[in-house]
Write a structure and sequence with these properties.
globular, single chain, alpha+beta, disordered N terminus, 5 strands
């Protein structure tokens, strides 16, 4: 338990762009966040935490499984567009590109945070697609 408190403290005092992987590790361990911890995350992410929770609550996170290859692609239906999420580290939205990657002023966009929360809580739709549709699928998202 002391280790968890130390990890949380480290998570909340790191530079914001270094924080996201720590948050993901914390979520993956199945740890629940208290109201105080959510408030601390909001201090780092701003309103992105609320937006991420809204997307998960509205069932706007999709897990596409291509068959027979088994390739998995995650998509978050944002407020304006659908965004491709790659693994735990990339979103195709402009917020992620400009603020997380280029400026490193935030650890993540809210779409990527929503995908991580949805994955941990298993609150997402799973959609099966044929491998023949993969190229078209990717072209539509990018």
């Amino acid at each position: 338990m002391t280790e968890n408190k130390s990890n949380k403290s480290d998570m909340l005092t790191s530079k914001s762009y270094e924080t996201f992987p720590k948050i993901i590790d914390y979520i993956k361990k199945g740890s629940k966040l208290s109201i105080k911890e959510i408030e601390q995350l909001e201090a780092l992410f701003g309103d992105r935490v609320k937006k991420a929770l809204e997307l998960v609550g509205a069932n706007r996170v999709k897990k596409y499984i291509f068959n027979p290859s088994g390739i998995i692609r995650w998509v978050v239906n944002g407020h304006r567009n659908d965004y491709l999420i790659l693994e735990h580290s990339f979103c195709s939205c402009k917020d992620f590109l400009f603020h997380a990657l280029m400026k490193k002023s935030i650890p993540s966009c809210y779409h990527l945070l929503a995908r991580e929360i949805a994955g941990r809580t298993e609150k997402y739709d799973t959609i099966q697609i044929d491998d023949a549709d993969y190229q078209t699928f990717m072209e539509e998202l990018l």
